Sequence to fold (71 residues):
Amino acid sequence: SCPLQFSMTGSAGAELKLDKSFSIYVEPGLVYHIDNHSSVSTFYQYRPLGFNLNMGLRFKLNNLKNRETGL
Fold:
């Protein structure tokens, strides 16, 4: 049987609106891989804590508005 590899992730981000239809964002985060006591050696056994950084551009299309679907 193959043990599962569980992890926990946390992040927080910020967005800077440059105008009403364009913005940039950044979202740093941490991930921790929980030891699964597997006999198979993995990278996560030696470095269980990791850092990630998501960043990008956001565009708002004015002709696509949020609509309630009535479901």
The first helix runs from residue 43 to 46. The mean pLDDT is 87. Strands lie at 7-11, 14-19, 22-33, 49-59. The first strand starts at residue 7 and ends at 11.
